[in-house]
DNA sequence: GAAATTACGTCAATAGTACTGACATAATTC
DNA sequence: GAATTATGTCAGTACTATTGACGTAATTTC
């Protein structure tokens, strides 16, 4: 009963390895790294009754204040219905406000409130600490390498989403106003 | 109605930025990278009616053939009940077999079948391709830097999980207890 | 000015992954 | 024999996500 049924395939007892030309080492590291990376804010979010979805919305609204619902959907790659509940909760709890679009009054521009800004920072803080520690461990000069690697991991056609970020150390961006 | 209610906080119109001492650049890159990294296998999994959870189980059973249910739970950081359904499906579809533990017959050692090995490879292939391309983009010599960075992103007390990776071919360093 | 399109919101139903708590069984250990 | 351990399973719940349908208001098109 606990042994494989007669029809079932035989157990393979050798470990899959990088020999197969596949980079299991980094695949696995990426899994572990992301697992622990998200565990930090998850704990804070739980106190608010929020989940990871709230974090993502909060993050991008703070990064790109004034983005519309449609733009947010495009960045998150989720559906309108999935966003609806999460966004409503963030608005109801006064973390995000909607402002009627100036050009097109059908649009709702999304902005963080002071409360929403504060929460976004609180969530990012432990993640940033973890990154800083990891950068130090791996030699502080290697930041550019890691940034380039992560960017290269994103689908080329979606890399535009990254460049829309607000002004930062890197030069390229549009004049946000 | 679409405007902020009187009681609500005022919209903040400036973007949050790295000035706040927080590394939003890498936080965001990590999100995008992981989003697209998981999208590759997700498409294959959908054909089987499987989800991301199946992938993770399949991955680790292939990486560490013979691991027990308890060990798997510890690596994945999920509960027994969450694993149950996923593992059952993988066993029912003949991707994984259970073998009674040799020393302790209560234990079920988990092994991939040929079918399970093939699927694990198929799922890892596009991910590995993406990693290879990203490594090339960021300069092939930088692999060690990125590996160290990702490892440093994992909680120190959980880093042991990474070292349990299989012996490449044989001769494993099984630091038993 | 009427019609079509767009942006957004909402309702209903469903799925996948996770959770807690409780209980059962078999094997091992004390 | 009793306690503990490894595993399996049941019931109930939560969160995030899905598709499809429909409504409303604003803009665009003809």
From TrEMBL, chains A, B:
Keywords: DNA-binding, Transcription, Transcription regulation. Coiled coil: none annotated. PROSITE patterns: HTH_MARR_1, HTH_MARR_2. It comes from the Bacteria. Residues 23-155 form the HTH marR-type domain. InterPro entries: HTH_MarR-typ, MarR/SlyA-like, Tscrpt_reg_MarR-type_CS, WH-like_DNA-bd_sf, WH_DNA-bd_sf. SMART domains: HTH_MARR (SM00347). This is MarR family transcriptional regulator. It comes from Mesorhizobium vachelliae. The lineage of its organism: Bacteria, Pseudomonadati, Pseudomonadota, Alphaproteobacteria, Hyphomicrobiales.
């Amino acid at each position: 009963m606990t042994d494989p049924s007669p029809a079932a395939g035989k157990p393979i007892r050798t470990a899959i390895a990088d020999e197969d030309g596949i980079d299991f080492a980094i695949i696995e590291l990426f899994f572990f790294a992301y697992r622990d990376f998200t565990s930090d804010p998850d704990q804070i979010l739980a106190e608010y009754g929020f989940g990871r979805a709230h974090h993502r919305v909060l993050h991008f609204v703070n990064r790109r204040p004034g983005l519309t619902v449609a733009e947010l959907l495009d960045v998150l790659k989720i559906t309108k219905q999935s966003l609806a509940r999460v966004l409503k909760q963030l608005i109801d709890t006064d973390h995000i406000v909607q402002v009627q679009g100036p050009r097109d009054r059908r649009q709702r521009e999304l902005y963080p409130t002071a409360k929403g800004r504060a929460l976004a920072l609180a969530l990012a803080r432990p993640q940033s600490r973890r990154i800083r520690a990891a950068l130090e461990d791996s030699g502080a000069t290697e930041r550019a390498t890691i940034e380039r690697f992560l960017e290269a991991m994103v689908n080329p056609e979606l890399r535009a989403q990254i460049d829309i970020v607000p002004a930062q150390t890197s030069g390229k961006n549009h004049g946000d106003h």
